Amino acid sequence: MHTREIAKNLYLIELETGGFKNLICSYVIKGAKTTLVESGPTSSVPRLLDGLDELKVKHEDVEYVAITHVHLDHGGGAGTLLKSLPNAKVIVHPRGMPHLVDPQRLWASAQLVLGFVSSIFGQPEPVPKERIVTATEGIFNLGDGAKLTVTETVGHASHNLSFKESFNNGVFPGDAAGTYLPEFDAVVPTTPPPFHLESALSSLDKLIALDPTALYYSHFGKASNGIQLLIDYKVQLKLWAKIVAEGVKADQTSEQISERILAEDKVMCKYADYFRSHPIYSRTVIINSLQGFIEYAKQTQTPASPS
Ligand SMILES: [Zn+2]
């Protein structure tokens, strides 16, 4: 079984990208207008289609594929997926749209930032422009009174959207709320460059204001204690920002800064061995998320004025 029911009219599809469980998922909102949240990466599209078959969702009945942002693990598979969903339109932030229409630049930068992980996700195929709907805020009617409400939640990326579904009033935050580790019921930063701390913190305030009954993380799964996790994530981002700002000021290497984070961040410290040995998270959480903070600190620290 690739799928499980997680709330009323809502199903999770485990994409098991690269053979890794609890790494990336897509969601299906069943209703008058069936909607997917996240296409997932190109390499996982066959698995996603298997999930739809398992849920007895007819491919022609899918109305929307809402993608939180265009990074390969969330929207990379949209072009490939749409070939199998003849009536579906993609919902995306307007700043993400050009990367769906022509994914070449996105693919090149993903290879740089993610290294070998990009090949696990696979190269994105273009999405025809006429099959894209852009939004930053607003409501999509899913039929029979059901709604999908869009909120702009940038910071992780300049094109991250969150979606609230009206069947259960839960929220899909994309990567605006970090990476959730269901094994540990804890959150860790997902903040690769270009990361913008202030925007990320105000997006977290927006998510808290939505008062979600649950969060549906793309990495990974449903958390019913969403508000507490959002509050924890704000504290964690501020801690990382402080450690990194001090490290950059003192000219420390990224290894020295990451050692301090692994020692002082409660979650990272408790599960340090897990992160160090995880083939994906050792790259994405420890190296890429830290790099996002380092580049942000370098841009925002004003050099001392000459006396
Ligand atoms: Zn992601």
Attribute tags:
Metallo-beta-lactamase, Chain A, binds zinc ion, globular, 307 residues, 2 domains, 39% helix, seven-stranded mixed β-sheet, alpha+beta, four-stranded antiparallel β-sheet
Overall pLDDT confidence: 95
Number of helices: 12
- Element-level helix/strand string: EEEEHEHHEHHHEEEEEEEHEEHHHHH
> Which CATH C-level class of the largest domain is it?
Alpha Beta
Q: What is the CA-CA span between the terminal residues?
A: 67 Å
How many strands, which pairing sense, and closed or not: the largest β-sheet? Answer: 7 strands, mixed
CATH topology of the largest domain: Metallo-beta-lactamase, Chain A
What is the 3D shape?
A: globular
Question: What is the C-alpha radius of gyration, as a whole number of Å?
Answer: 19 Å
The overall strand count is 15
Number of individual domains: 2
Q: What amount of the residues lies in strands? A: 15-25%
CATH architecture title of the largest domain: 4-Layer Sandwich
- The CATH superfamily of the largest domain turns out to be Ribonuclease Z/Hydroxyacylglutathione hydrolase-like
Bound molecules: zinc ion
Helix content: 25-40%
Pick out the low-confidence regions. none
Arrangement of strands in the largest sheet: 1-2-3-4-5-6-7
- SS-derived structural category: alpha+beta
